[in-house]
Design brief:
alpha/beta; about 40% helix; globular; UDP-galactose 4-epimerase, domain 1; Rossmann fold
Length: about 325
Amino acid sequence: MGAEAQMKPTVLLTGGFGNLGGRISAALHIQGDWNIALASRTHTQAPTWAPNAKIINLDLLEKSQIKNACRDISAVIHLAALNDRQALESPIRAEQISGLGTRHLLESAIDSDVERFIFMSTAHVYRSPLEGTITELTPTENRHPYALGRMVGELAVAEFHKREEIIGVRLRCANGFGVPMDPHVNIWHVLVNDLCQQAVSSKQMILQSSGNQQRNFIPISDICSAFLHLLKLDRSKIADGLFNLGGPSSLTVFEMAELIATRCGVVLGFTPSISRPNPSQDENYSGLDYRINKLQATGFFPKDLKANEIDAILRMCAQRNS
């Protein structure tokens, strides 16, 4: 390690080879203020987007591996978790990874004098469907295994933060979407990515619902910016450490499909059709007002460049299908 690298703090990312972890580690590499360590159960070499990263072998269900994972680390970005489909199939494992694994990683971080621990949670801890006005004070009522696992992890972070043993930040993220660094990551089931793939492969997008329900969509570029912001945010502005993260406004699913169709015309030269079932007789969706005022009060403001992110996904889909 060179003299310049020795002077930089090191941030450890769990899930660093996944969709979000790849983008965040790439953003950290470009920014250049941090040494990067990526935790993985399977990868042994640094990725092209973070070529100087140190790879740490880590299984969150192996306490012996967790014990030494945070040595010489200044901050942890904890992303590793089962996605919603995986959590529904394996609810016990979801809670073990997001709950027990998070607690053990926190204990390791505290033992190693890590200053800051940022935990990626989800807006879906609040309720399902996610609708109405949502602030950090809204009760967490969702009993889906995906939400429950994240809440167990949140409770551990909140506990150690309240004891002032570590700066613990919990991010309840809305519907993130974006182009992955690695096209082979398990991200193509996510709504926006799936619609982009449909548009490119078949020149049509088929919605599974009327599309009238609102979602708060946030480009991954803004999620990356939020993490970079929180890594350096003064402790006095972190308060209890809980923040909603989302876009400035919500769209219906159909409106998002229309935006994708428009961008497809600009980027690829054709406009895919959109088909959707008629609304059911008892359909009654409320709007979604996902409040991010608390995070904005710390000085973070999303750029909300949805079109840029969609364009990049469409180009990757075109390459995948060529």
